[in-house]
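Ticket #4471: structure export looks truncated?
Reporter: QA, pipeline team
Priority: medium

Steps to reproduce: submit the single chain below to the structure queue and open the exported record.
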Amino acid sequence: MSYPRYTEEFKIEAVKQVVERGHRVAEVA
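Actual output as written to the record:
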């Protein structure tokens, strides 16, 4: 965790992917 900036960007991208998948799953369900 020597690069907080990289961690923040990676975390934001991960959250976006999860949110997108969640919306798709909700629509399919």
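Status: closed, not a bug. The export was complete when the record was re-opened. Leaving a note from the reviewer for reference: DSSP finds one helix and no strands in the chain.
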